[in-house]
Amino acid sequence: MPVNEIIVAVVGPASAIGGTILGVVVQHQLTRRHSKASRLHDSRIALYADVYTDLHITSRWVDTITHDDRDYSGTRPDRAAIGGRMLLLGSPAAQRAWQEYEDSEHDVWFYIREEGIGFNGPDERIDPTHPVIVRLRDAVAGMHEAVRADLA
């Protein structure tokens, strides 16, 4: 048997086996990568669901402190946990929006304490056009926008 025929007889099946093995390895890597991306997406959805819950409660709270006829109630998700998950999972734009949201809410609380507002009557409400309220409402809208952009 000539050497060329031996080479063809050996290389042909070896190439087929090598191609099959390579195909299986590549398919496994693609499946793992897709699974990881899917888990990351699911984690972001859970994070942003908590963020939206927090934003909704904050919006209701702002309505309460700016209007006498509103009722505020609700339980916030764990803010520290959201902040940590935001650092791990959020896009840079969502992280910046979250920081602005937290800072602006802090400014409202600071204003309430500094002014000694007790919300005991209609005279103890914050003007809805006050800069701290406008900043907080803008921060809530910015957070909504950042989440929508991140999930698009």
Written overview of the protein:
The protein has 152 residues and is mainly α. It has 4 helices and no strands.
Indicate the topology.
Blueprint: H1 3-66, H2 79-89, H3 92-115, H4 131-151
**What share of residues are in beta strands?**
under 5%
Q: Outline, from the CA principal axes?
A: rod-shaped
Low-confidence stretches: none
Please report the distance between the alpha carbons of the first and last residues: 64 Å
Give the rounded overall mean pLDDT.
85
The H/E string reads HHHH
- How many helices? The count is 4
The count of DSSP E runs of length 2 or more, i.e. the number of strands, is 0
CA radius of gyration: 28 Å
Structural class: mainly alpha
Quick recap of the structure?
The chain contains 4 helices and no strands. It is an all-alpha fold and 152 residues long.
Which tags fit this structure?
rod-shaped
